[in-house]
Amino acid sequence: MFELNVTHDPKRRSWLASANEPGTPFPIQNLPLGVFLKDGQSHVGVAIGDRVFDLTAAQHFNLFTGDALIALQALRVGTLNALMAMPESFASALRKQLSEHLVQGSGSQTMMTALSSSLLLERASLQMVLPVKIGDYTDFLTSKYHTERHGRFKGLKDPLPEAFKSLPIAYHSRASSIRVSGTPVVRPRGQYKDASGALKFGPAPMMDFELELAAYVGQGNELSKPIALKDAALHVFGYCLLNDWSAKSIQWWEQVLGPFLGKSFMSSISAWVVTSEALRPFRSKPQPRGAKDPACLPYLNDPLDREWGGLDIEVEAFISSEQQRASQLPAQRITSSHLKHLYWTFGQMLTHHSSNGCNLSTGDLIGSGTISGPTDESRACMTEITEAGKKPLMLSSGESRTALEDGDNIILTAWAKKEGHVSIGFGDCVGTLLAAQGAAELDV
Ligand code: CA
């Protein structure tokens, strides 16, 4: 399931120079899929160096054969869903043949160079759109550190809910308001209690970001037929960055049955889908459970998942305020964390999600929850960084923040890294907070 092949070879280089530059998120070992607009049509592409290989335009050339050709034809509609619904071997065949076309010394280099003006587009010039039709979106809560800190801010006697170590906690979120990186997020209006305890309706204070990773479901499961943990990895097509924008003021007042309007106004995802196959070299042993933790029930316990269920992925968040941008100050890093801090694996999340018979569908998005770690540097949302507003975050511009302000730009990044392998990146997940719009006559 996690075997490496020639496409993962760390010695492999491309004839496209920008794909070999140190620091590129998209070397030939990555080959993530995305969707962009060209002449008003959705085209599927693969990021390589500073270019995008246009798979939709490639339909007109005889570059692919066999299963790779079938995979290519599945992408004709301009989303990844049809390919994601197929067995992984089809996407794998396409990846292998594309890698062969792009590799240094490739027999087709001359032909590809000739075709490059129509097939290799400048990545920075493209308008990316959502790569997948996302039917359902579930967001988990799998960082013990994030959960404990929030419990303490709320003054809970036991900051970690008893169920946390028995099952991966989640809520159903909103798929319709997921937007691709670059889309601004508008501050929502909502009901909240102000500092004096008075009930208000209006532009929500205490706006926050949440640094997360998300898995795309590939092949789903039938209703009433749960996914066994040993098979769970086969159901994940790929991963992206997720910013689960949160209006904490709304959320903390409304949250009796779970988050609702404090989350559903918008969520941002990165444009590129880094495939499960590309991430195989970065599979790792998840953090062991604590000695005093309750035993994992059998359905959430599997030797393959215990050995390979983790992923070596570093994540970071940066802020760039209007004033920082005006002063030409670089974006300021405010979080540096790692997927290893999560208590549950993505496999356990999928298995638990389907364990009552709930059917997951191709294109569903499964968020990890805020990826906070134990240290101050690894706190992955503003509420944690500022201790719920008590300790303002100082910006390089001299400003301070207890929460996000209008004009603040948040940039999330992720890198899969492991010694002996070429690091691969996810690209950015970016969004700027805009002032609340409309309905001002309802404010109190
Ligand atoms: Ca979240």
What layout of secondary structure does this protein have?
Elements: E1 33-38, E2 41-48, E3 51-54, H1 66-74, H2 81-84, H3 88-102, H4 109-119, E4 120-122, E5 127-129, E6 137-141, H5 144-153, E7 169-173, E8 178-180, E9 185-186, E10 189-193, E11 199-203, E12 207-208, E13 211-217, E14 236-243, E15 246-247, H6 248-254, E16 267-269, E17 274-275, E18 283-284, H7 303-308, E19 310-311, E20 313-320, H8 322-326, E21 332-338, H9 346-354, E22 365-367, H10 382-385, E23 393-394, E24 400-401, E25 409-416, E26 424-425, E27 429-434
Parallel strand pairs: 6-22, 8-16, 9-27
Antiparallel strand pairs: 1-2, 1-5, 2-3, 3-4, 6-7, 10-11, 12-15, 13-14, 13-22, 14-16, 14-17, 18-19, 20-21, 20-25, 23-24, 25-26, 25-27
Helix pairs in contact: 1-3
Bound molecules: calcium ion.
